[in-house]
Amino acid sequence: MSSSALDAPRFPVWRYAGRLVPLAVLWAVLVGLLAWLLATRANWGEESDRADVREWIDNTRVFRKTLAELVKEYVDLLHVENRGPDHGDRVKNKRAEIEEHMRAMVEPTRMYAGQLPLFPNVYSLEIEFAGVTGGDARPVEPVVWTSPKPRPGGSAKAQLRTLEFAPPLDRPSARARVRCVYQLHSFNRMQKQQDEFRFWQTIATGVLVPTTLLAVFVVGRFVRREQARELEKWRAAAEAEHRERDLLAAQVERELIERSLLEARVKQQELERSSEELGRKLLEQELAAAKLTNRAAEAEREALEMKSQLYASIGIMAGSYAHNIKNLLVRPNDLITRCMEAAGNTEQHGMLEEVKSTLGTVTERLQQILRTVRRDPANAEVTQVDVYALFRETQRTWTEMGRDKWKLAVTAVVPPGAALVTGDLSHMQQAVENLVFNARDATFEMRNYLRDEAKRETDPTARRHKLLAAASWKGEIHLAAHRDGEYVVLEVRDNGIGMTDEVRRNCLKTHFTTKRDNALYEGYSAGMGLGLSFVAMVLEHHGGSLEIESAPLRGTTFHVRFPCVES
């Protein structure tokens, strides 16, 4: 038998813990009973004293009323609804009555302190109020009586007791608390109580120690007996296992010889199977690669179809709008022509000429917009575009409109000269104007925000100042351009409402808008979520990039970067 077989197993003590539960429960009950008896014996005297002091406070009637009744009358008087002209004097008189009642209660105990053993030495008697207010809506001050005799110090300080209780007021929101600091027993009686406590504590220790030793002895004897039984069972099982092991050894040797023969055959079969598995895996990998290629091509085709459908929808919608507007402009043009013929060479003729020129510009602008939105940015008409000139033209086009109609300033800082970029002029012009329109809407939202904040102000003076400040607030759109190495950077900055982090992450997605249910400016419809997505599409097909800096109520800056063409 090997040395490992002779190693005895560890005794499972917890297996027999259930058998020891009754003994442990009996011992715990005994300890708890003794502890309860000691605590009851130690606190009986103090609880009796507290009951005596409470009965003295509750039942003492100086003015034919107890202290609790006087406190309730005082609180009811403070909360009475129909107050007469003498209400203040009645409240003062009731408070003085309570103070005199307290003084009459404690003066005899102070005068005969130490002469009558059952009289308490009262050091302070206080009534605190919570949820009770006076006529000036301020909290009611507590009623306090403090003994002129100083409180004991040193070891005698431990003899002081505090009694607190709340007299009934029949008012859920009002509460009162009576606090009494007193000393009832003399030192000899306190010493006697401590001696009695130590006596009973000695008795409890004398009972607990033998019972604990007896319980430990019984548990130890039980555990040793069970451990001996487990060891005998384990030895018998080990001997039987050793005999079976000897019988199996011969059979194992025979099986090893047969197994070696089978292993040789299995290895040959595994080699054949591995070669087949390798060929199958190669075929699966080729099939998976072909599927991935097909999926990528299908996804790209679907993306192109979606983009084409999007711009086809935009083109149809814009074409319908432009066609309707052009039809509406035919009649005004005809009427203006007839008015000019009738007016002759007068001042009205010049004004009508200016109106006709403006309508012609509107018609030309509609045709340009129609050509732009009907053409997919992926199929742009590539030329060399001067983005500096584009920014200057944008500033000239929208400055007057911004000042007169939008109530904002459109400014531009563009270096002299030219900056050429390869791209489609109409698409780039439309993208820049979409950024300008987005900045315009942001300033409108900021102005509305300032007005709403002013209207929510409760102070009339502060609300008037805020409304004036909101009315005088001016929106700003600033265009700037500069060279950065091989790139030209275009910036569109506003002082509008700004964007949160979530809006900044999603603002370039198609049909994403924060203005869908909010009319922006004098009949302009809410946003459709196409402006910034069109800008992103134009930049993608022009090799450009877009960076957005924004924070709520801090404005927004769009940085557009294009690769320059060497002149």
TrEMBL record:
Record-annotated Histidine kinase domain positions: 320-566
Sequence intervals crossing the membrane: 20-39, 199-223
Reaction(s) catalysed (UniProt annotation): ATP + protein L-histidine = ADP + protein N-phospho-L-histidine
Keywords: Coiled coil, Kinase, Membrane, Transferase, Transmembrane, Transmembrane helix
Entry's Gene Ontology molecular function annotations: kinase activity
Enzyme Commission number, as recorded: 2.7.13.3
PANTHER family per the UniProt record, alphabetical: SENSOR HISTIDINE KINASE (PTHR43065), TWO-COMPONENT SENSOR PPRA (PTHR43065:SF42)
Name of this chain's protein: histidine kinase
Species of provenance: Gemmata palustris
